[in-house]
Amino acid sequence: MAKARRQYVCQSCGAMTPQWAGRCDACGEWNSLMEEAGESSGVAGGPAAKMSNKKKGRQIALVPLAGEAAETPRRTTGVKEFDRVLGGGLVAGSAILVGGDPGIGKSTLLLQAMATLARQGANAVYISGEEAIEQVRLRARRLKLDDAPVSLGAETNIKDILATLQEGTAPDAIVIDSIQTMWSDTLEAAPGTVSQVRATAQEMVRYAKKSGAAMIIVGHVTKDGQIAGPKVVEHMVDTVLYFEGERGHHFRVLRAVKNRFGPANEIGVFEMAERGLMEVANPSALFIGEREKDTSGTSVFAGIEGTRPVLVEIQALVAQSSLGTPRRAVVGWDGGRLSMILAVLDARCGLTIGGQDVYLNVAGGLRIGEPAADLAVASALISSLSGMAIPQDTVIFGEISLSGSIRPVSQMEARLKEAEKLGFKRAILPKVAGRLKPASGKLKLTEMEDLGDLIAHLSTKDLTVTKTPTNNEDLTG
C-alpha cells in the first residue's frame, strides 16, 4: 500500500527538505519550514509503475511561426487608471495577481472595478475569503456601489468555488480575495501554505484559460513588500500588479511589474477619498502641488513611470552629525544609490559630506527606481549644503557616473514636454550634442557634462534665489 511521504516546505521560497531545520538552506529564512504531506510513494518498479510506463502521451499539433494572429480583445472596467496599468483593459482568459499591504485599498479598488463592469452589463463575480457577505455589502453601501448587479460570494473551498463558476455561462470577470485563504481538500496542508497557494492558484488560472473569464487574484505581501507564497505563482499569471502607498498619504500607486498584454512598470495613481479611490489624471500636479517657496535642498525631478512622465519633488537635508557614524535616511529612493552619489560628490568635487547626516525624501511617498534621478538628487544635496535654493520653475534629470560625468537618459523629450505642460521654464539635463528637439521654445535648456558644471551653474546669481547661513560658504565662492 502506498505510504504518504512527509516533507518540510519553506513558506518563503517553496524549497523542500525531508528533515526539519531552523533555517532554510535555500533562502536563509529562519523558522519558515512547515511540515506538509507529500505525494504518495510506491515500490519502485512495481505494478503501478509498470502500468504508468506503458501509457503514452497524445501527439500535439505543431504549427509554423508565421501566421495570422487576431488582436487580443479587451474589456474596459471604466476605472481609467486601472485600465491604463492593465494596458487598455481586461483581456479575456487572463490571470491577474494584485498584491499590496493590508488596508492599502486592494479590495476597495477591485470592488469599484467590478461594480463599474456590472453596470456596463458584464457578468462580474466577487468571491471573498476574508470577509463575510455583510461586510462586503457594508463597504459597497459606503462607496455607493450597492446598486451594482455584482454576484457576491463568501467561500474558501476551491472546489465549491469552481463548481459554482462552472454552472451556467462563464463570468466575464472574477475577483478572488484572497488566494492565501483558499484551500483544496486534496492537500493536508493548512490554507496559506506554499502547497495550498500553488495548487489553488493553478486551479484558478486553469479555469480562466479554459472559460475565457478574466481572473483577478488578490495576494498578501510579506514584510519585505513581496507577494507571499511561492514565486511560481507570479510566473503562472499573466499580469502582476503591486498596490503601493503609505497610510499617512492620501494617494495610492498601482504599478505593473509584469504584464504579458501591456507595458511593464506602468503606473496608475489614485487618491483615497470618502467614497473610495478616486482617479488622479495628472499625478505630476499632485506630487509637486504643495511645494514650499524658496527653500534650499529641494529640486524637481522629471521621471518616467512606464510610459507616463511624472514630475516629483526631491527633498534633501544635510546637517552636522553628533554621532560617530553619520546617519543616512532615505525614503522613496535606493539607499545604495545615495551612497554612490555622496561618494562621487566627495571624491570628484571635493564636497565634505561624509561626516554629516544626510536625509533624502521623495515627496508624496512615491518610490523612484530609475537612475535618471541622480542629477536631481545631487542638485538637492548641493542646494542643502550651500543654502542656495533652486528656483521652482526648474526641472532636473540625468544619470551620474562614477567619474562624475552626467550621462543622457531615455525619453528626454517626453520629460521636457511634461515640464512645459506644468509651466516650468528651465531644465537642467545631460549634454546630448544637439540631438534633443523640445516641443516648443518655452523651456530654457541648460546642458551639463559633469558635476563641476552643475556646481558652477547652481552657484550663479541668475539661478539661485535665496541664501541662508551655512558652514559651507566656500562651496559657491
Structure report:
By secondary structure, this protein is of the alpha/beta class. The protein folds into three domains: 3-42; 74-281, Rossmann fold (3-Layer(aba) Sandwich); 286-470, Ribosomal Protein S5, domain 2 (2-Layer Sandwich), CATH 3.30.230. It contains twelve helices and 23 strands. The chain has a nine-stranded mixed sheet with strand order 8-7-9-10-6-11-12-13-14. The longest helix has 18 residues, at 194-211. The radius of gyration is 27 Å and the shape is globular.
Task: List key phrases describing it.
477 residues, alpha/beta, Rossmann fold, Ribosomal Protein S5, domain 2, 3 domains, nine-stranded mixed sheet, seven-stranded mixed sheet, 12 helices, 25% helix, globular, disordered C terminus
Q: Which structural class do you get from the secondary structure elements?
A: alpha/beta
Q: Which word captures the global form?
A: globular
Tell me the count of domains.
Answer: 3
* Second CATH tier, the architecture of the largest domain: 3-Layer(aba) Sandwich
The share of residues in extended strands comes to: 25-35%
In the CATH hierarchy, what is the class of the largest domain?
Alpha Beta
Query: What characterizes the major β-sheet?
Result: 9 strands, mixed
CATH homolog superfamily of the largest domain: P-loop containing nucleotide triphosphate hydrolases
Model regions low in confidence, pLDDT < 50 over at least 5 residues: 465-477
**Order of strands across the main sheet:** 8-7-9-10-6-11-12-13-14
Q: How many H/I helices?
A: 12
**Using only CA atoms, what is the Rg?**
27 Å
